[in-house]
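Re: Re: ligand-bound prediction request (bumping)

Still looking for help on this. To restate: I need the protein modeled with 2-phosphoglycolic acid bound, output as structure tokens. Inputs repeated here so nobody has to scroll up.
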Amino acid sequence: MTLQLERLAAPTTHARLLAWVREVAELTQPDAVQWCDGSEAEWERVTTQMVRTGTLIRLDPLARPNSFHARTDPDDVARVEDRTFICSADEADAGPTNHWVDPAEMKTTMTELYRGSMRGRTMYVIPFCMGPLDAHEPRFGVEITDSPYVVASMKIMTRMGSAPLAAMTADGDADFVPCLHSVGAPLEPGQADVPWPCNATKYIAHFPEERAVWSYGSGYGGNSLLGKKCYSLRIASVMAHDEGWLAEHMLILRLISPEGRRYHVAAAFPSACGKTNLAMIQPTLPGWRAEMIGDDIAWMRVGEDGRLYATNPENGLFGVAPGTGWTTNPNAMRTMESGNSLFTNVAVTDHGDVWWEGMTSIAPRRATDWQGRAWTPEDDTPAAHPNSRFCTPISQCPVLADDFDSPTGVPIDAILFGGRRASTVPLVSQARSWQHGVFMGATCSSETTAAATGEVGLVRRDPMAMLPFIGYHAADYLGHWLSMAGREGVRLPEVFYVNWFRKSADGRFLWPGFGENSRVLAWITQRLDGAVGAVESPAGLLPEPGDLDLRGLDTDQDTVARAVAFDADEWREEVPRIEEWFASLGPRLPAALHEELETLRSSLA
Ligand code: GDP
Ligand code: PGA
Ligand code: MN
Ligand code: MN
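Reply:
Sorry for the wait, this slipped through. Here it is.
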């Protein structure tokens, strides 16, 4: 069946876009093509249709207005790092940390998969912009997808529809990143659909030179909302390298001290290691306030004054549900309470509300679990999938900074790196220099989480929390970070390394975390102001005893001391692991990082 040209009904004159849409339609053979305008009417249409097909459940409008739940296929619940490819022209440019396939070969393989893959479905064309439309250089993308779940999610997560499409032709045909997505589940005439169409074969492919993304087989957010990880991190990291800026896996936060001083913090933690929570922190230290600018991605550029300015390219939150509750993250709970949200793989209560482990201290007496089975608290499986998610407009966050979509962004005072380490890494340490800070980021490690498929709890190096997201050679990426210091007139932020996840011998967290992390943030601001000293250690500068404000904290001093402590024996064990990691990055690794490792080694001798 050939698609009639009229049925493309294109609301644009953008020549390259029109040609690409036609080419994809001819290849994938959808029943219809729909250009998304981003309107409420469109949201209403796609959500209603998904309720009809069983993809979505409408939640109780009194508890969760205009909100829905999606149960995915049980094999389509997380990012698939082993199916994610950086298809650079030269294999060496993908580096040792990425999977690589020759771009021509990948395109041949995927073209065959896409052939007819949208039969029986609607092909949606989603024009979008990462970051505000009035940015100096707006970064456009267009996602073509056969998934209405993607349409609804992209409406929450990005600026999408008619406005970015109009902006794309306002001043000649603008550049855009083509993002092609198919769930890979064509329907034959008369064939009934399943609630969550997907394919056992999955490819998340990136073409860095061409600045294009092709995704096939998965409907899960990180694999299918291509503006997020694929564009704003993997492709954007390549753009940033070429253009002299940074595209990072970071939250952006404004802290306001009791005296009204403002500080801006960007923090990189691996997936499911606390970014969304820190971004929305409700400080427990009296008088402190915090405002959120972003919770997952930061684009940072050196401004005219030499400072590093960060913007959040996203427009929504795609947060880990389990562990999010009124005591841990009340601001996330308030954000969702306003409705207009999509939940994925959580549990649903008899009242048509959502529930997950950690949302309330008492579980509902019964619920329907993430796979649609009857569940009670006595069951030994969790009600919600550990990587279940809430997807909510950022505008609903009660602590959103009112200038969050300022095109210039906010000047960053401190960069935090962190991860989930049960041992070794102290609660907080400060880098002695930019180079030492880059070393901290480069050697950052974390236990794997349910955010990606594969075993959970394995310690791995995760440089700048970007291991799965660097779109080129990791050693060149670290070189790019180092090179920021060589720019004329630059005044870079201070760098800190934090670990909220250190555990006692009996497996309990030593530090209470969440709102109490404000105590660590307060110490960081005092360091920025030169208001307190610090203790030198091989791991960096540590708080002097008494300088962390612990007033009102109900964790005993001894436990806190163990969270803060530097343990030379543990660090001696760490050195060979860092050596091994650096060796795996090969000869392109900058000498400055080998130097820092030498400094660490000799200071431990
Ligand atoms: P993100 O994926 O990096 O944005 O991480 P989230 O903020 O969504 O948190 C992931 C998981 O870690 C959730 O289950 C949180 O409840 C938990 N978490 C976040 N911050 C802390 C903390 O400070 N301490 C502890 N123990 N857990 C935390
Ligand atoms: P997260 O975002 O970092 O908030 O978990 C999704 C992901 O990284 O997969
Ligand atoms: Mn993330
Ligand atoms: Mn998050």
